[in-house]
Amino acid sequence: MEFRQLGASGLHVPVLSFGTATFGGNGDFFKAWGSTQVEEATRLVNLCMDAGVNLFDTADIYSDGLAEEILGKSLAGLRDKVFISTKATFPMGKSPNDQGSSRFHLIKACEASLKRLNTDYIDIYHMHGFDGVTPVEETMRTLDDLVQSGKVRYIACSNFSGWHLMKSQAIADHYGWNKYVAHQVYYSLINREYEWELMPLGLDQKVGGIVWSPLAAGRLGGKYRRNQPFPPESRIAQGGSPVPEHAISEETFFNIMDTLDEVAAETEKTVAQVALNWLLQRPTIATLVIGARNEEQLKQNLAAAGWNLTLDQVKKLDQASEIPPIYPYWHQRQNLKLNPLPKFY
After folding, report:
1. What percentage of the chain exceeds 90 in pLDDT?
2. Domain enclosing residue 268, as ranges
3. Is the pLDDT of residue 237 over 50?
């Protein structure tokens, strides 16, 4: 398993990490993702470890904390051999103080996650989303305190806009506090907006990319074809997709699938493996968070690493998935000498 440095930190992480949103199955939304319990979760963890994947990603809101509990139990006896990534910010109760990135909520949320995970520290602690109400100074100081206390090793963010991330980094830099070393983002062949601003920012500020839903909620798994209904057992059909339906036109999507089929035949890999491997060729990307409802899915996804698409195959997929940028990115691209694009090749 290949390891990559995570942003400006000294931490090296595997290029594939395992996401636990399928653990628990509490609530209609997460039930559509999966309902993996401790016994099966332990088998999946062991498969990951055998493949060299030792980074496990979760969040407090996944099944109302149950995913963290199951992950903690499945990692029994392995804590010194693994990295745990979890998140806070989104509502975990009905009180107005049960959400956000305030000092009050983050300290409470971190302590609760530590207890559910049955651990003394969190390796990578994410702000799951940006809190536009709490002063950024309060959030970054609190996160720095959590690092200084030893309860958190590294901090990261998720789903931030470019200015959210840059303001946070600038404030932390000004006061000498710990900065975000990674940004967990949605990025896939069918949604490449990450490349417009967040990727150039990541390159400039040395913020590593951690990709969630790299197969676009299963759309790039190989089951979706022209003139065919969505498989009834899929997350999309069951209402569990975190990716909006309007994110891409149907014609563009199927053109991408046609190209994936072509490259999959050339490489003798599956469509999903090709889609994941394409992401591993992109600048700033440190790790892809892969999920699985069962052992077979996990084995298939784990085989996306350890090989590389050719330059021509990457270009072919780039061309099939290219989408027109919105303003101001189309305007900036009129002068690439002043605003050079990230180098993909």
Report:
1. 79
2. 3-332
3. no
